[in-house]
Amino acid sequence: MAPSRPLFERRTPGPAMPSVNDKRIAFKELHKTGCFVIPNPWNVGSALYLQSLGFKALASTSSGHAYALGHPDGALSRDAVLAHYAELAAATEVPLNADFENGYAHEPDDVAGNVRLCVETGVAGLSIEDFTGDAQTPLYDFDKAVARVRAARQAIDQSSTGVLLTGRAEGFLHGRPDLDDAIRRLTAFAEAGADCLYVPGIKTREQIEAVVKAVAPKPVNLLMSSATGLTVEDIASMGVRRISVGGALARVALDAFIKAATLIAKDGKFDRLGGIISGAELDAFFARHAPSKP
Q1: CA nearest to 112, candidates 155, 150, 145
Q2: According to the model, what pLDDT value does residue 293 have?
Q3: pTM value surpassing 0.90
Q4: Helix (H, G, I), strand (E, B) or coil at 125
């Protein structure tokens, strides 16, 4: 019988590639002062281009990855996303944060086991959210939500890897826009060991500043998934440490594709193919930045 293959494989970094530990140390340093943008690639090509623009860290996007494979957000298996994280982490020189959704489990012990697998992919950070996946009862009850974050923290500590843990309160994305409840959950997640706190869906200055104040001095991640007029400077002035864009960049790419393809299909016109980057330019870019031969 042939030996079984590992769940995922990670290339050994070359001379110019920082080690996994180097990237984990760098990721923690980024959270200590200032404000940085952590954009969300959905595949290796988009990750390499974002890295080339000078972003100091990247984060996966569950929705962008799912759309690229023809699925809705949340439909991919644990093993599929773990393989995706390993691929992104191996291809890039900057730290990668994993959007690990609800840990692909409900019970704390199962979350801990899956977190251990996630750490093995080479990520520098991962997030655990309190969304159950059930639209009727979208959030885990308070005590269970906290226990799940605590279990993730213990799994990371037992791994001795220094992976950064983000605790997410998902109410604003799933029909429960209660800021007081979100803050109650975030402060408990912080006490349970989350290094960074995150309420995707908050938008106003008052909401953002209230969250930053409530969990200080721990850093806060802010989701910018639409054009609100806020700049990085504006957001930094509110005390936010980290800014992500979720699946927005993947949607930008899909939006352009859909509009161009639809124009061809409906009107027989190729107007939207003008003014785009050339194949030669992309060939030259990936010739310089490709992580290895396919």
Answers
A1: 155
A2: 53
A3: yes
A4: strand
pLDDT the model gives residue 7: 42
d(CA 243, CA 35): 8
DSSP class of residue 18 equals P
At 44 the three-state DSSP class reads helix
Lookup result for tokens 């996994």? 20
What would the two tokens of residue 62 be? Answer: 């569950």
Distance spanning both ends of the chain, measured CA to CA: 28
Q: Please, which residues bridge with residue 36 across strands?
A: 242
Given a contact cutoff of 8 angstroms between Cβ atoms, the answer to whether 161 and 121 are in contact is no
Region 23-38: what's the mean pLDDT? 98
| CB-based burial label for 202 (10 Å; 0-12, 13-18, 19+) | buried
Write down the CATH superfamily of domain 20-248: Phosphoenolpyruvate-binding domains (3.20.20.60)
Residue whose C-alpha is closest to residue 27's, from 78, 82, 94, 83:
94
